[in-house]
Amino acid sequence: MRFLRLSLFPLLTTAAFAADAVEFNRDIRPVLADNCFHCHGPDPGTRKAGLRLDTEAGFFAPRQTKDGKQEPAPIIKGKPDQSSLYQRLLSKDEDEIMPPPETHKKLKPEQIAQIKSWIEQGAPWQPHWSLLPPVAVTPPTPKDAGWAKNPVDRFVLARLEKAGLTPAPEADARTLVRRLALDVTGLPPSPELLAKHLPKDGSRLSDAQVRALVDELMATPAYGEHRARYWLDAARYADSHGLHFDNPREMWPYRDWVVKAFNANQPFDQFTVEQIAGDLLPNPTESQLIATGLQRCNVTTNEGGTIVEENLANYAADRVQTMGWVYFGLTTNCAQCHDHKFDPFTQKDFYSLAAFFRNTTQPGLDGNVKDGRGPVIYLPSDADRPRFKALPGEIEAAKKAALDARAAAQKDFDGWVAKLKPADLDQDVPAKGLLRRFALNEGTGTPAQTRATGPLTWSKDGQTGPAPLLKKGANLELGDVGNFDTMKPLTVGGWFRPANVQGLQALVARMDDPKAAQGWSLFLNNANYGFYLISKWPNDAIKVTTAKPIAKKDTWQHVLLTYDGSGKAEGIKLYVDGAMVPLNLEINRLATSSQSKTPTRLGQRSASEFYEGNAQEVRFYDRALSAAEAFALARVDGIRAKVAGKLAGKDRAAVLDYYLGVRRPDVLAVATRQTALEAEFKAIKDRSPLTHIQEERKDMMPMANILLRGAYDKKGDQVAAEIPSALGKLPADAPKNRLGLARWLVSEQNTLTARVTVNRFWQEVFGQGLVKTSEDLGIMGTPPTHPELLDWLAVEFRRTGWDVKGFYRLILTSATYRQAAVQTKEKVEKDRDNSLFSRGPRFRMDAEMIRDQALAASGLLATRMGGPGTKPYQPENIWEVVGVGIQAYRPDKGENLYRRSLYNYWRRMAPPASLDLFNAPSREVSCVRRDRTNTPLQALVTLNDPQFVEAARVLAQRALLGAKDDGARLQAAAERALARTLKPAETTILQASLASLRQHYAAKPADAEALLKVGDTPADPALPKPELAAWTMLCNQLLNLDEVLNK
Amino acid sequence: MSILHEWNNLQTRRRFLGRGANVLGAAALTSLLGRSLAEAAPGAMSTQHLPKAKRVIYLHMVGGPAQMDLFDHKPGMQAMYDKDLPASIRNGQRLTTMTSGQARFPIAPTKYKFSPAGKCGMWMNTELLPNLAKSADDICWMRSLNTEAINHEPAICAMQTGNQIAGRPCLGSWASYGLGSGNDNLPSFVVLIATPTNRDQEQAISSRLWSSGYLPGEHSGVSFRSKGDPILFINNPPGVPDDLRKQTIDGINQLNRLNYEAVGDPETHTRIKQYEMAFRMQASVPELTDLTKEPEHVFKLYGEEARKRGSFANSVLMARRLVERGVRFVQIYHNNWDHHSNVNGRMPSQCRDVDQPCHALIEDLKQRGMFDDTLIIWGGEFGRTIYSQGGLSKANYGRDHHPRCFSMWMAGGGAKGGQIYGETDEFSYNIVKDPLPINDFHATVLHLLGYDHERFTYKYQGLDQKLTGVLPTKVVKALIA
Fold first, then answer.
1. Are A1045 and B271 in contact (CB under 8 A)?
2. Is the Cα dihedral B438, B444, B448, B453 positive or negative?
3. Min CA distance, A788 vs chain B (Å)?
């Protein structure tokens, strides 16, 4: 507390002396909260002597103590002598004095005196200010009425005049254009923008000019990107799950939704309702569903051993905490375990809020996969959309058609089967294009046309007699058969029975390991089958695997792979026991020949992926067998055996299946159509972005159990979804779910949302809110510096229909905002933190703005919007040392290196390093107010990070190419970096720098060469290297100036 | 001194080192005022009582070493091989979902040889830790640590920050917040991630473990990296020698001074200092990380592995160099202690990684006269079960997570050498004497650093936040020399 006192001292004193009346909210409650609430606050768990000082009754009503004694009220209005609260503060008795010595808390004499004055003045009590509805008082009339441009200024100026201060003069035009560009778009003004908006006569901007500039900037898409960045901190948006493996999560469509919402100037109430309850709106649009991603941005885990119920409790708690900071301006998380010590927020309130957010279909484990195991929606491209929409219906119809066809063929079957002899089935075994067949049922020795790598053992229980048991050192070379080529069709497969389904095992392969795995392999990866067709791994290859694990340990399956010779993964089909199975097309970029010199092998590649298990009846064809043929191959031996006996029951059904599959292409075609449609649907899903959404459980009403001490397995009372009791109750007719909550949040009944929001918007522009603790407008938060202004803004925001652009326009066109950021001795003494806004805002910009500014100044900035997270330059070993296993960071190439930092891929365990050093949050929890530290590590970023060095070089190049002499070049670079021209004294310093840099690089051309290689954009070869290097370092200097790093 | 001047000074330092937060503890104020003040009255201003330790080297064994295979001697278990753990001992303990489905819980006695070490007679695994055993009398052995958490993420978080839920400052940040910096050119809190020889059971660690949470950002651990630049972006771009960098920084500062004259923002002053310090840091790190000047006997002491950048031995040697230069808190993470299976295949290399370097660190600090005021801490985030997870044989077994008891040790810095504290039951399952919850352990460490954990607070979200949380917590005097 010590420092707080110090920094607020001028404020408190001016306030206190200006008005003699003691104000409970301003002067008394903070002192009591700090010193007394722990034992005499809202938490009954720690409350002593039944006394509470957080309610009106607590002060003025007599009370019963635990032992039944009647105690007089602690405050007797007007009579400090009879008020025990005051007397206990004065006591010299160790047992009597408050606060008790062991708490190490002590009131200052002036605080005690103020409590006395308050009692003498009749002890007027007030509820905490943020729980009272905001009221728009008439803006005051300051003495210097001409200064004010809008009501905001009248509040600010009246406060300044009270403190004996005058506003700073208006900033010059260049400064203001730069400031506005940075505040509206997060980017510096381009020279073109400056040229367009600067008055030719060097005068300051007129009101109309400011307004025109603001409107022009707000119409650019960069506006929404800049606003979204602040919101995404609050929303804790990131591109990874956050815990344990911290694997990728796909939900950037939500990020893009936020950008679009700001650009479309969606009213803040709708913006809120859609994010809290878009899924519960009648017939929600896709956009409204995407909006609910706000609630899916919390960290999740898939750590083995964690308990689903506990995880779900944590996820809900995180949503309550986020809601608390973003909408209530209240810190809720202490109430997870106990009633809040200071604010009127109980543990029951916490779980009543949690109830809204728990009622979801989200699973407790995210599976370490990008969809987190749902709920998600897919967002197909415009081209895919019609099919994506039509397919579910078509699949249903195809299913029905398949059943119908089957029923219709039943009668034909009865006739066929009556005459059937086993030998009739031989014709079903495809003979055309058969390259070779290995029966592998000899039962002893080495099968013909093979070479064993070691002595074989035989298992008795094969499909067609004894089958060889293959393992490392005892498998078979099959010679030259099956030297398949990229553009030729093929079929390969047979019967397999794996002894285990762990790791990678090549069933049959012709693959040359040392030659970049050239060749092919039909393999098992754990329980998934797959196929490689490779010219050069991994960039000239095809890889597919089955979408689901289907192999089973110690179980025979017929596995057949066909390929149509198209060179595409789409041309591959895999049949297991005769049925086509869906595939994931993992790699699909084969261009050159897959033929290899190594022999074809059963049970391994040339030197790896040894298979352990049986094989039998392995066949090679030079064409892609049809589905009917694949079916026949898998079934014919079994059917032959059945047909030999008497057919009934299950056996007869199996023969029917066979008949339909092999002899009735018409029926098969219908069944195949269903499979094909399902595959088409899956393929569209696979290539479409997805995003996490919220989805309400339909089978129950929102409710939660109070968890004792916050522990998931210590359940207390069950509570229904409800808003915190101190804030009222949901209207009777409101749904008791998130939709009810969302509508209440933006209703007039809620005293908080508008205040909290305008305060945060104000903070973005001025660097600090009217309430500095923008996450906490509660009792322990700092009191507002301008309470009437805050309320006026809140009411105005609501009155204008929650018009976000309108709100920013209001403050950006104010005289308050337009002040120069110049300090004077007087201002330093009376308003050192600029809490009174006695000068314009000037503070070190956020991480993203600093990076984006360097990119924009140099002209490198790529303005493409949206899409998956980008990976610009980052030193090695930042991702690798965190998380489980090795997830390497691979920087992107080209445009993605230069896009706005908003789009940076955000891995929560290791957020972008250069941004992290400038206080960008990890996005593990909501953040509505960033730190702003200045550490030497930050200087190292802007001096040495390749991103900044490259930007300096490109800026240098631009200056060199764009102007003729040193003077003009310096001015050109300065205008891009500073948005202004250089003063003579500055030019002198820079010229001196330039001279010495030139000298260095002329003498050390190798240094110049090395420096110019930093970054992916090539240096202009037309420019002399030493000269460009010297200018690069000069621009590196410019981009590191305090004025550049500050707004 | 004029008010303006005085305030400029204060503001400059505050902004430079701090975040411009308007609430800071008295202890931290000293650190903000920087080294000169701290030097004038070493420790006295910033600490709340006379500290025993001035710096800490914390060796965190990620994954949770098995206490009964290293330090918690349970000879009676040999006779219980493959017998079921009595239900009365398990007593409703929640299990991870990795073993909750197991049909039985067969006891796996340790396969390693234990014998008493030192005058204190500490029974420990002398087969795999023969060097550490030589330091037994310098070490304060603790066998009764316990935690609430049962999975790695929350457990490491609890061990480091006092709370399972992420977002609070870690011990290193608290130490930095209190003690400030002992060297203007280096951060006060440094993190090293050592690469274990065997990596097949690594667990997640993340930068949140060394984040400053709600404390000002400069108290975050600065990661010294084992690949690439030791500190992020510490090296100049290629083609920029130090003297040229010095010139450019001088140019930047000259221009900033002009700007300060025009605008008068004290932040500009801060910026000038910030760039000066960045340069000094750039200049001092190469010397710091250059081990070639270390004499041969040092490598003999720590082992040849110490030459290999990123190894545990190398990290420990680096830690000694860091604390020698005034760094207050060095956190080393050594991974791969999560032995759900194959203890036989993993434990020896884990122990080989740490055994000699830990002993060497103690000896080395003694030789330099720094042992008495440097606190070394060794331990994981929880213990492991006496029963085997998966297959059990006399030669090999696995163990699941066990939060109810685990072993750690401290040395130097006021920790009581030769003390053996706490006792578990015959199954190393429950604590029977002197339980040591994490919060008590933290309170004791803070005490050694000169802070009363009740009063060593930071105002955040309206509360006086502290490392040890809200539950009753005590300093364990028996651990203190």
1. yes
2. positive
3. 23
Q: Choosing among A940, A947, A1012, which should be mutated to test the B contact, i.e. which has the most B CBs within 10 A? A: A940
Residue B319 pLDDT level (bands cut at 50, 70, 90): very high
Residue of A nearest to B196 (CA): A881
Rounded CA gap, A889 and A907, in Å? Answer: 10
Q: Are A237 and A254 in contact (CB under 8 A)?
A: yes
- Residue A367: helix, strand or coil by DSSP? coil
- Note the pLDDT tens digit of each residue in B391-424: 899 999 999 999 999 999 999 999 999 999 999 9
Beta strands in B136-239 (DSSP E): 139-146, 189-194, 222-224
Confidence of residue A884 (pLDDT cuts 50, 70, 90): low
Asked casually if ipTM beats, i.e. exceeds, 0.95, the reply is no
For B55, the enclosing helix (H) or strand (E) is strand B55-61
Residues of A (566-625) whose Cβ lies below 8 Å from B: none
Contacts of B193 in chain A (CB under 8 A): 881
What tens digit of pLDDT does each residue of A1012-1046 get? 999 999 999 999 999 999 999 999 999 999 999 99
Show residues of chain A in contact with B11, CB under 8 Å.
Answer: 832
Q: How many CB atoms lie within 10 A of CB A146?
A: 8
Q: Cα A329 to the chain's mean position, in Å?
A: 22
> Which residues have CB under 8 Å from A17's CB, separation 6+?
none
The answer to whether B232 contacts A883, with C-beta atoms less than 8 Å apart, is: no
pTM of the predicted structure, to 2 decimals: 0.81
Query: How many angstroms separate the CA atoms of A957 and A940, rounded?
Result: 23
Residues of B in contact with A1041 (CB under 8 A): 252, 255-256, 259
CA distance B215 to chain A (A): 10
CA-based max dimension of chain A: 116
Question: What span, in angstroms and rounded, lies between the C-alpha atoms of A535 and A1000?
Answer: 50
**A467: burial class by Cβ within 10 Å (0-12, 13-18, 19+)?**
buried
pLDDT in tens, B51-71: 999 999 999 999 999 999 999
Number of A to B CB contacts under 8 A, please give it. Answer: 272
Out of B239, B244, B263, whose CB is closest to A1010?
A: B239
Q: Do A1041 and B259 touch (CB under 8 A)?
A: yes
Reported in sequence order, the residue ranges of B187-271 that DSSP labels E, i.e. its strands, are 189-194, 222-224
CA B325 – CA A574 distance, rounded (Å): 65
Q: Do B251 and A990 touch (CB under 8 A)?
A: yes
Is A690:A379 a contact under the CB 8 Å cutoff?
Answer: yes
* Cα B59 to Cα A336, A391, B62, B315, distances in angstroms: 33, 58, 9, 10
Return the top range by mean pLDDT from A111-125, A321-335, A788-802, A931-945: A788-802
**CA distance between the termini of chain A:** 30
Cross-strand bridge partners of residue A152: none
Residues B238, A821: C-beta atoms closer than 8 Å:
no
Computed over every residue of chain A, the mean pLDDT equals: 92
Non-local (6+) Cβ contacts of A339 within 8 A are A42, A43, A44, A45, A345, A346, A347
In sequence order, what DSSP letters do the residues of B406-418 get, joined into one string?
EEEEEESTTB-TT
- Enter the tokens of residue A474: 């005892």
- Are A901 and A228 within 8 A, CB to CB? no
How many CB atoms neighbour CB A996 within 10 A?
16
Average pLDDT over residues B456-478: 86
Query: How many whole angstroms from its chain centre is CA A925?
Result: 11
Q: In this structure, what DSSP letter does residue A304 have? A: T
Residue A167, SS3 per DSSP: coil
Which residue in B23, B150, B222 is closest to A1 by CB distance? B23
* Residue A279, SS3 per DSSP: helix
**Alpha-carbon span B466 to B451, nearest angstrom:** 11
